[in-house]
Design a protein that fits this description.
- The protein is built from seven helices and 14 strands.
- It starts with a strand and ends with a helix.
- The chain has one domain: Metallo-beta-lactamase, Chain A (4-Layer Sandwich), CATH 3.60.15.
- With about 240 residues, the protein is of the alpha/beta class.
- The chain has a six-stranded mixed β-sheet, with no helix packed on it.
- Helix content is about 25%, strand content about 25%.
- Bound molecules: zinc ion.
Length: about 240
């Protein structure tokens, strides 16, 4: 199936939406963008929020859920997210636990201090939402739009990726390709072992391009260059 990818954000905070013959698939729900701005940007591309059939949330962090509640209440697509995502959503703030390096830890703590704590959102009740939970080592297939949502724990325990049949993957913050991340590694890593297993899972994907939560997309060869750093990783 032919797909068309639009980035409504920028390179540091991409905001991807994918057009398929069977409807729109939204990947994550924005960073610090209100719902009206998101809809206005969508309309400028000739698309409508009404055609969003699925929303895949790669993980629950403040910079990925800005208009989640608004989109679910206004349009109500089927939401696919990872195991533990609902609990994280109801917390209303990023969980800052362990980091990919001492530098990443210092930087994250500094950002939190400037912000006056972890990044927050309003954790509205989600019981009424149509939602599917993808287990950490499992996957969920959507035949109509030609994709699989696969567990990809590590950055967070609830992380998942979206893999379209044509070889296009959206991996969330599993990998990052811009400052302040170094060597592709995200600053926060909740589970080192799971992260390494998830990287192996990525390497085994029949994909040729990987869209990241932050930074420009990378090809397969470029993604492989992160491998030694993933291997050497020790969380702090
Ligand atoms: Zn992020």
């Amino acid at each position: 199936m032919e797909i068309e990818i639009f980035n409504l954000g920028n390179v540091f905070y991409p905001d991807y939406i994918v057009k398929t013959a069977a409807g729109l698939v939204k990947v994550d729900a924005g960073n610090a963008t209100d719902y009206e701005t998101f809809c206005a940007k969508l309309h400028r591309k000739g698309l409508s929020e009404r055609d969003i059939k699925y929303l895949v949330l790669t993980h629950v962090h403040a910079d990925h859920v800005a208009y989640l509640a608004d989109l679910m209440h206004d349009v109500g697509p089927t939401l696919l997210w990872g195991s533990g995502a609902e609990e994280n959503w109801l917390l209303g703030a990023d969980r800052l636990m362990t980091y990919s390096s001492k530098w990443a830890k210092r930087l994250s703590e500094m950002a939190a201090t400037l912000r006056g704590g972890a990044a927050k959102w309003q954790p509205l009740e989600c019981l009424g939402w149509s939602r599917i939970v993808v287990p950490p080592n499992g996957e969920y297939r959507l035949d109509d739009v030609g994709l699989r949502v696969c567990g990809l724990p590590g950055h967070t325990r609830d992380s998942v990726m979206v893999a379209f049949d044509g070889g296009v993957c959206f991996v969330g913050d599993m990998l990052m390709n811009c400052v302040p991340a170094v060597h592709g590694l995200p600053l926060l890593i909740e589970d080192e072992e799971a992260f390494k297993e998830s990287f192996a899972r990525l390497q085994a994907m029949p994909a040729h391009i990987f869209y990241l939560g932050h930074g420009a997309p990378v090809g397969k060869a470029e993604m492989e260059k992160f491998a030694p750093y993933v291997e050497a990783l020790h969380i702090v």
